[in-house]
Amino acid sequence: MKEYVIISGKGGTGKTSLTAAFATLAERSILCDADVDAADLHLLLSPQEKQRHDFMGGNLAKIDQELCTQCGYCREICRYDAISPDHVVDAISCEGCGVCVDLCPEKAVAFPQQKSGEWYISTTRTGPMIHARLGIAEENSGKLVSLIRRRARQMAEEEGYQRIITDGPPGIGCPVIASISGAEKVVIIVEPTVSGMHDVKRVAGLTAHFGIGAMLCVNRYDINLETTEAIEKMASANAIHVLPRIPFDPDFTMAMVEKKTLVEYAPDSATSKIVREVWRRIEEHEAQPASQPIHLPKLNVKE
Amino acid sequence: MIISVASGKGGTGKTTVATNLAAAMDEQVTFLDCDVEEPNAHLFLKPEITHRQPVYTFLPKIDEDRCDRCRKCAEICRFGAITVVGNQVLLFPELCHSCGGCLLVCPQHCIDEDQRELGHAESGTAKNAAFHHGILRIGEAMSPPLIRWLRKNFETTGTVIIDAPPGTSCPVIAAMHGADYIVLVTEPTPFGLHDLALAHQTVNALGIASGLVINRANLGDNSVQRYAEENNLPILLEIPFSREVAELYSRGLLLVEENETWRRLFGGLYEEIVRQITATGKVS
């Protein structure tokens, strides 16, 4: 069983549209949407929910005003400035560290666990899908990502699925690290812009940091051919496998409007043929034995 | 006056709006790129960077010789960053949230203040803007403390424009909390609409006034416009998709420097934001 994680560094490069297209092309695969604070994959695949679970995230401090003597000690020790002068905890600023809970001389601080979101096991026309919804303004997205990835792996092992295709979040921080750790293969989707170039270096630096092999695909390559070439050159120089380029194609948006993946919306179009080829190459590359630990040279990132 | 430019979905044009808004202004502005995981604003504003500094967060340092393995530090740590296994006390720096609880409870006073590098901050000037951005260290998971550090150190009393990270969770909250106005940027597609609704709920949970910029306004459908109307979210500006705009962006060029029409439109955007903030009657 292999898990492919699609990430991008920069948002909006086409991760989710391509993940969904790959899911329609892959046989016996489980889909996992790890972009838990702005999940969109369900909009293309209309999952039918089979199971719904609460996600219990962190705890938040709550001061019992009856017991509080307004001594101010909690305000003094809170490093997040989360307690107001009248001793009320700001839920947005509270980190859930519990220091005030343990050290309040009056034991006036409660520490209830919060429901921070929900996660689901669903079925779609491409196979099972595990996805989640983090509550508004909630924390612990990394923890939720780890939870749903673990659940997807468990299902794959129990039910004999060969692959998990995971739609990752943008960026390089906590939820991204939680999305790629332990994955067999990472596919980076990039756009040929100055931002895309800048961000792909950082996300490739991240995969190298964690010793994970990566592949790269330039989407909307025809927006800037020169930058496309520069990105592919940078990738090759850093032992990142370069996949075929995908052109800018309004069909991706049209497919989205019709709740379809590109290869379902325009199965015979030139772009669909390229997307099929990209997927074939991802599969093929994955099939090569990775007997040696992948070693990526340090990126020459000028910042 | 703090204006934060945010979106649920990534790649909708936050940086385009934030940088062009700043560049269209006649007055001095402070620009903070708080998308510290993938900061891009400098590629468009092209500031001359004059100062660079590392940013640290608290990390405990345990003197193992004086430590009597009482486990008080491990007990207060909710993040599993300190554990005692047998006769060894183990610290996992990447799990530490810098709450300082261990420091307070250690009866032997054998924990000292040390630090972990979150990344660094760079400052400089770009025409009318005092420019600052944070750059998260590759491999560092926690961006909110770096975002908070930037805001604490560089927010000024004049106009501040913040380029926020995508999403709806802690990093975005860190970039929006305490702002006077949020400009939400989206594209009129099902993904754009879905993530706009999440971002709008987040903004409402923070109780901050907001308005909408629709980017690539002629792609997709009209459901975003309908959402805005039904939810009293004023549409501030619509930027149509054109290959020209996409290519200018790809080369790191500002729209307002390409032609006067864009300069007028973004100048008008700023005036409209000021008008709306004034109407709320609570300017910081």
Textual characterization of the structure:
The complex is a heterodimer of chains A (303) and B (284). Chain A has 303 residues and is of the alpha/beta class. Chain A is 36% helix and 21% strand. Mean pLDDT of chain A is 92; it is low at 287-303. Chain B has helices spanning 14-24, 41-45, 72-76, 101-105, 144-154, 170-176, 190-206, 223-230, 243-250, 260-280, and strands spanning 2-6, 29-33, 48-62, 82-85, 88-91, 111-126, 129-136, 159-163, 181-186, 209-215, 235-239. In chain B, 35% of the residues lie in helices and 28% in strands. Classes of the chains: A alpha/beta (303), B alpha/beta (284).
Kindly provide the radius of gyration of chain B, computed on alpha-carbon positions and rounded to a whole number of angstroms: 22 Å
Compressed to H and E, one letter per element, the order of chain A equals EHEHEEHHEEEHEHEHEHEHHH
Q: What helical percentage do the residues of chain B reach?
A: 25-40%
Q: What is the strand tally of chain A?
A: 11
Q: Give the low-confidence spans of chain B.
A: none
Q: Roughly what fraction of the amino acids of chain A lie in strands?
A: 15-25%
Outline the biggest β-sheet of chain A.
9 strands, mixed
What's the mean pLDDT score of chain B? 95
Strands in their spatial order, largest beta sheet of chain B: 3-6-7-2-8-1-9-10-11
Give me the secondary-structure topology.
The complex is a heterodimer of chains A (303) and B (284).
Chain A: E1 2-7, H1 15-25, E2 29-33, H2 41-45, E3 48-59, E4 62-63, H3 73-77, H4 99-103, E5 109-110, E6 113-124, E7 127-134, H5 141-159, E8 163-167, H6 174-180, E9 185-190, H7 194-209, E10 214-218, H8 225-237, E11 241-242, H9 251-257, H10 262-265, H11 270-287
Parallel strand pairs in A: 1-8, 1-9, 2-7, 2-8, 9-10, 10-11
Antiparallel strand pairs in A: 3-6, 4-5, 6-7
Helix pairs in contact in A: 5-6, 7-8
Chain B: E1 2-6, H1 14-24, E2 29-33, H2 41-45, E3 48-62, H3 72-76, E4 82-85, E5 88-91, H4 101-105, E6 111-126, E7 129-136, H5 144-154, E8 159-163, H6 170-176, E9 181-186, H7 190-206, E10 209-215, H8 223-230, E11 235-239, H9 243-250, H10 260-280
Parallel strand pairs in B: 1-8, 1-9, 2-7, 2-8, 9-10, 10-11
Antiparallel strand pairs in B: 3-6, 4-5, 6-7
Helix pairs in contact in B: 1-10, 5-6
